[in-house]
Design goal:
Blueprint: H1 13-24, H2 33-47, H3 53-79, E1 92-96, H4 102-109, E2 115-117, H5 120-124, H6 139-154, H7 158-161, H8 173-177, H9 183-188, H10 192-200, H11 204-217, E3 226-230, H12 238-244, E4 249-254, H13 257-275, H14 281-304, E5 311-315, H15 316-321, H16 323-333, H17 340-352, H18 366-369, H19 374-380, H20 382-388
Parallel strand pairs: 1-3, 1-4, 2-3, 4-5
Length: 394
């Protein structure tokens, strides 16, 4: 199908929609709010992206796949419309700077039987969560497993970078993708006009759909069962997120930015090198530095306008000292208890999954090679580090 598409991405918009409808037999994409976002992205692909042949195909497949998922989830929303009136009360939401231990925390808290989380396969194909015993035979679950394994087979080092399981908790990325509003687009490709658009965009339609999909996935659960969500990007749009989820319990993870920024830039550069030629490592490093420093500063100001009790700050060192105790304190802060079965499950997960179980992410000092020393990174994050009392890691 890809070979039949026009060379220009912008000329492919309707053809991709038609192909998505053909593949699914469905026609309702839901509210059209996503259309303008997609058009801005396609124009940026045409005018700015530096795709190699492989990268262009990956981008088209991503767009088509997202449209297919949007059609399927819209059909599920129509079939389960009663859930759209369900409240999502006081969800626990992990956010903060990238590479600050949020994934490890998410996986650990995801073992708590008193919480419900967004499993990878249900984020990919939103639908009411079926009984867990049926998952291994579910076609969508098996597809998600195959997708993850294919990714790790292509690059085994990715397990150490971001570990995923079809049945495991996964961040909100795939829900955000359905509106074509996700930082993955600007991370994976050089699309500055889309990045500028994305940063200033009213994200309320994105988070409204996000909430509807969360409602859909939890349709078979008790409305009283607390949700656990996670995505660093929520910090970038914290004001709008809290407009849609006004009583969310925010867990913000913290770490010395200089200790993790090189790892993050190395990760992005690795992805870019697969799909673009050439890549500009200087642009990548400086863009991400400014983006996340600005987001951290904005979050400080947004938090000043809210009840401090709505937030819990978790420093990386405290989490690593005693992960289970860290979870107990988080839940206690928000008036929740860590039950005996939950504590047992968390300790078992911790014992079975020590740090670097899936390998250690080895990377060069990418930022120093493009003129960003650890001191320069800390200088840009000075407001953030001072506010939260963060110290430089050796």
């Amino acid at each position: 199908m890809v070979s039949l598409l026009p060379e220009r991405f912008s000329d492919s918009e309707e053809i991709l929609h038609e192909e998505a409808m053909r593949l699914t037999g469905l026609q309702d994409f839901g509210p059209s709010t996503y259309r303008e976002n997609l058009q801005v992205l396609l124009a940026a692909y045409d005018q700015e992206a530096r795709f190699n042949a492989y990268g262009a195909n990956v981008a088209r497949d991503m767009i088509l796949g997202t449209l297919v998922k949007r059609l399927r989830s819209q059909n599920q929303l129509a079939l389960n419309s009663s859930v759209l009136h369900r409240e999502i009360s006081r969800p626990l939401v992990i956010c903060g700077l990238v590479r600050t231990g949020s994934t490890a925390l998410h996986y650990l808290m995801g073992q708590d039987p008193d919480l419900q989380c967004l499993q990878y396969w249900l984020g990919a194909q939103p639908q009411p969560r079926p009984p867990r015993s049926t998952w291994p035979e579910h076609s969508d679950f098996m597809s998600a497993q195959a997708e993850i394994e294919a990714m790790y087979d292509a690059d085994p080092s990715l397990r150490a970078v971001h570990f995923m399981m079809a049945e495991g908790p996964e961040e909100c990325r795939q829900l955000m993708l359905q509106e074509f509003t996700d930082d993955g687009f600007e991370v994976n490709n050089h699309v500055p006009s889309y990045s500028k658009w994305f940063q200033k965009l009213n994200m309320k339609p994105t988070y409204q759909r996000h909430k509807d999909l969360v409602r859909l996935i939890g349709a078979n659960e008790s409305a009283q069962r607390t949700w656990l969500l996670k995505y660093p990007v929520h910090m970038r749009f914290l004001d709008t997120f809290l407009e849609v989820y006004p009583d969310a319990c925010i867990i913000q993870t913290h770490r010395d930015p200089a200790a993790v920024f090189s790892s993050y830039v190395s990760l992005i550069s690795g992805f870019r090198a697969l799909v673009e030629d050439p890549i500009d490592r200087v642009e990548i490093a400086h863009r991400q530095l400014e983006l996340w420093a600005t987001a951290a500063e904005r979050a400080i100001e947004i938090r000043k306008q809210r009840n401090p009790a709505q937030f819990y700050d978790l420093h990386f060192s405290d989490f690593m000292t005693d992960p289970v105790e860290a979870v107990r304190k988080i839940k206690g802060h928000f008036g929740l208890s860590l039950s005996e079965p939950a504590e047992k499950a968390l300790r078992q997960w911790r014992d079975d999954n020590p740090q670097h179980k899936h390998g250690k992410h080895l990377y060069s000092r990418e930022t120093e090679q493009v003129g960003l020393s650890p001191d320069a990174i800390r200088d840009r994050f000075a407001v953030y580090m001072d506010h939260y009392g963060l110290r430089a890691e050796s």
